[in-house]
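Homework help board

Subject: predicted structure for assignment chain

Our instructor gave us this sequence and asked us to write out the predicted structure in token form, then describe one feature. I got the tokens but I'm not sure how to describe them. Can anyone check?
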Amino acid sequence: MAALVFFNALMVLVGAGIGSQVVPTKFFRGLLTMLHNTVGITTPSPDKERMVAVIWIATVTLIVDGMVFLLLFLTWKLT
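My token output:
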């Protein structure tokens, strides 16, 4: 459970850093480009990179939290 709290805190800090322009664009541009190429969608324009990065971070956080919740919920019901 502590790992999930740490993960959420880290993701919120990274998202806040990117969204508030504390983190320079060059640090996440390569990762964002690689992620978009892997999924097969076009990369965002440079003026929208921050918004897209924050959206990806929020999406990953929600997916991880949802999977952990489902795992705990299903295992709790089975015991």
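Reply (TA_rk): Your tokens look well-formed. For the description, you could write something like this. The radius of gyration is 15 Å. That's the kind of observation they're looking for.
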